[in-house]
Design a protein that fits this description.
alpha+beta; Arc Repressor Mutant, subunit A; Beta-Lactamase; 2 domains; 6-stranded antiparallel beta sheet; two-stranded antiparallel sheet; globular; DNA-binding; transcription; transcription regulation; HTH_MetabolicPath_Reg; Transcriptional regulator, IclR family
Length: about 270
């Protein structure tokens, strides 16, 4: 490390960022002792830091108060940038409309900092439904959202997205799914995570012609009420909604996505 870099270090800030990055990798959270062990520090070193992060909303305690997990504060900050806010406001209205029309849940995912996460989510209006948690990270290779994002990218950008996740090359199953998605313009396939669920996903296209987000639905066949929309019916409505949102993508959002991907080392 150079002398100049050492001179301007902020150890307390480094410690806090280390905690946030660690918790981002553990969806179910960690105990204070586990955090200290993973970071090579003593629990007493981290006590005040963790207390501050909890108080400010960046970290939250589990229901039993024995584990700490990432809060939604960072997510909230990431989505308050004006151009992004415009897209998310439009998506909030659209996902709600789709959920009401299909009796299914609907969500929008965004790719940021090497990860795909749920930025907008609308529950099914029915008594029973399946939904993906707001703020949840979504796998790029095994979900409809991830495959829709990967399918509608240039080869170079797709490679950078995979590299950011430490994936050297596409697994055969994912490569085949992407080929099908490109040909059809959408993803419609059995869920690889939940039995009985069909992943429906459509890309939201920015000004560069690449996907900047994905609009998705974990479709479950409903027997009640009779005549509930079928998977093809839901896919049609989802595709129409994604087209409407593509028109709403501000140039700044597409530009940010392009810049971010270009900054990821190959």
């Amino acid at each position: 490390m150079s002398g100049q870099t050492s001179r301007y270090r902020a150890p307390a800030l480094d410690k806090g960022l280390d905690v946030l990055e660690l918790l981002a990798e553990h969806e179910n959270g960690l105990s204070q002792a586990e955090i200290a062990k993973a970071l090579g520090r003593s629990p007493s070193e981290l006590y005040r830091m963790l207390d501050t992060l909890v108080r400010r909303g960046y970290v939250r305690r589990s229901a039993t108060a024995d584990r700490l997990m990432l809060g939604l504060k960072l997510f909230a900050l990431a989505t308050t940038h004006p151009p992004m806010r415009r897209l998310l406001q439009a998506a909030t209205e659209v996902t709600t409309e789709v959920a009401e029309a299909t009796l299914q849940s609907c969500h929008l995912t965004l790719y940021r900092d090497g990860a795909l996460f749920v930025a907008v989510q609308a529950d099914s209006p029915g008594r029973v439904g399946l939904s993906v948690r707001l703020g949840a990270e979504v796998d790029l290779l095994t979900t409809g959202s991830g495959l829709a994002m990967l399918a509608f990218q240039t080869e170079a950008r797709r490679a950078r997205m995979l590299s950011a996740r430490n994936v050297g090359s596409l697994p055969e199953a994912a490569a085949e799914a992407i080929q099908v998605a490109v040909a059809l313009g959408h993803v419609m396939r059995p869920s690889s995570q939940t039995v009985g669920v069909t992943d429906l996903a459509c890309p939201i296209i920015g000004r560069t012609g690449d996907a900047v987000a994905a609009l998705s639905m974990p479709f479950i066949e409903r027997l009640d009420p009779p005549g509930s929309p079928s998977a093809p019916d839901c896919l049609r409505l989802l595709s129409e909604a994604a087209g409407r949102l593509s028109v709403e993508v501000p140039p700044a959002v597409a530009g940010e996505f392009e810049h971010e991907e270009a900054s990821v080392p190959s």
